From TrEMBL:
Residue span(s) of domain Homeobox: 7-67
GO CC annotation terms, alphabetical: nucleus
Biased composition (Basic and acidic residues): 77-90
Cellular localisation: Nucleus
Family annotation (SMART domains): HOX
Name the UniProt record assigns to this protein: NKX61 protein
InterPro entries, A to Z: HD, HD_metazoa, Homeobox_CS, Homeobox_NK-like, Homeodomain-like_sf, HTH_motif
PROSITE patterns: HOMEOBOX_1, HOMEOBOX_2
């Protein structure tokens, strides 16, 4: 028994055996909250006080909530980045719609040139109006 400077009993942290922790964790997997009778039975079977079991469950729930919140935040970030990726892909598909539409014979050469440059680096080496004697590539 440890005493503080005034001669009062100093509170020490209990250490639980591996078997006790294993049983507590197994019980926690099944239920996050223990009612009085279950807590009393568990405490008795593990050689612990009800107060120790109660505090262990409180601390374990806190740890579980923090981990659960972190996992939820990670999942949300992943979902948000996937949404952004898909949004970007759909924007590119909308841009591709212009390229995939049949060309209007009355459209100007500048618009056709821009579309070709956008989808083929360097304009794709195509000549739109070959001069007499030039072969198109």
């Amino acid at each position: 028994i440890l005493l503080d400077k005034d001669g009062k009993r100093k509170h020490t942290r209990p250490t639980f055996s591996g078997q006790q922790i294993f049983a507590l964790e197994k019980t926690f997997e099944q239920t996050k909250y223990l009612a009085g009778p279950e807590r009393a039975r568990l405490a008795y079977s593990l050689g612990m006080t009800e107060s120790q079991v109660k505090v262990w469950f409180q601390n374990r729930r806190t740890k579980w909530r923090k981990k659960h919140a972190a996992e939820m935040a990670t999942a949300k970030k992943k979902q948000d980045s996937e949404t952004e990726r898909l949004k970007g892909a759909s924007e590119n598909e909308e841009e591709d719609d212009d390229y995939n539409k049949p060309l209007d014979p009355n459209s100007d050469d500048e618009k056709i040139t821009q579309l070709l440059k956008k989808h083929k680096p360097g304009g794709g080496g195509l000549l739109l109006h070959p001069s007499e004697g030039e072969a198109s590539v």
